[in-house]
Amino acid sequence: MSDRGELVTFEFTPLMAHDEAHADSILITGTPRYGTSRVPRSVRSRSAARQRAARRRTERAAALEREGIARARTALERDVEARELMAETRSTGDALRSVTGQDRR
Sign of the C-alpha dihedral, residues 61, 35, 13, 28? Predict the structure, then answer.
């Protein structure tokens, strides 16, 4: 209830650890954290709230997917660099062994 006696509806959105509450929301701390925002009363408010929640879930899933792709690319680049260094080290070792006459162990 508001100070004026009106029924007030709030929409609660779970926040991930690194997410920030929207500027027009109230942050509820704890585990898990929630961002809340006042939902205007209308005939369509329930369906609009569901649509907003679905859109936020989709946006969050897309953000997580982008982060996962970025991590995978970084891991792949590191793997390629490590393989190149290993091949270069092997060829340098072979060249040095041929000059010094040492056998490969």
Answer: positive
pTM equals 0.44
End-to-end CA distance of the chain: 80
User: What type of residue is 99?
Assistant: V
29-70: pLDDT as tens digits: 777 777 877 766 655 667 777 888 889 899 989 999 999 999
Distance CA 24, CA 22 (A): 5
The count of residues in the chain is 105
> From CA 14, how far away is CA 35, in angstroms rounded?
6
